Amino acid sequence: MKKDNLRDQYRVNEKIRAREVRVVGDNVEQGVYLVSEALKMARDLQLDLIEISPNAAPPVCRISDYQKFIYQQKKRQKEQKAKSVKIVVKEIRFGPQTDDHDYNFKLKHAKNFLEEGAKVKAYVFFKGRSILFKEQGEVLLLRFASDLEDYARVEQLPALEGKKMIIMLAPKKSSGGSVKKVVEPPKELIKRADLQKEKEVE
Fold this sequence. Notes:
This protein is of the alpha/beta class. It is 39% helix and 25% strand. It has 6 helices and 8 strands. It has a 4-stranded mixed beta sheet with strand order 2-1-4-3. It has a 4-stranded mixed beta sheet with strand order 5-6-8-7, with helices on one face. The radius of gyration is 29 Å and the shape is rod-shaped. Residues 174-186 have low confidence and may be disordered.
């Protein structure tokens, strides 16, 4: 049987250990009472005495229907969880001289990550003198973003951080229906890289 942690979190009625409690609730005279008096007040209203702030001095108790109280707490927790959805960031690493096979393999992985709702942090790692190819790394990341344009929007264009050039991509389908503006990769940079490649081949 699954344990209900929320139910175990609150002391109710005779389980309340304090001698005196501060009573709150609807249709009750709020104030500090002996726990026996507070219990009588709850029973007279056919409700429960629920300890909601055990560390207060004296502890705070609410007179309410316990089942309804737990339901509302669960609903509130669910709403908070929905608001604070954990954002997963998956990293994909390239070298400045990444070949087509490796590139396509990583592109496929990125598509899967984005479809699962994760963000993708793609970066080119420059070892030693390979930092001289930083423009090539920038173009590789822009091409990567361009190839993923059906799946992702660019949150951060390529930026050099130490030995890494990083681009941040987020899934295009955003929760809550708000669509953020997509940053289009500068195509002239990609063209410039292609020209540079052709010169290198010559």
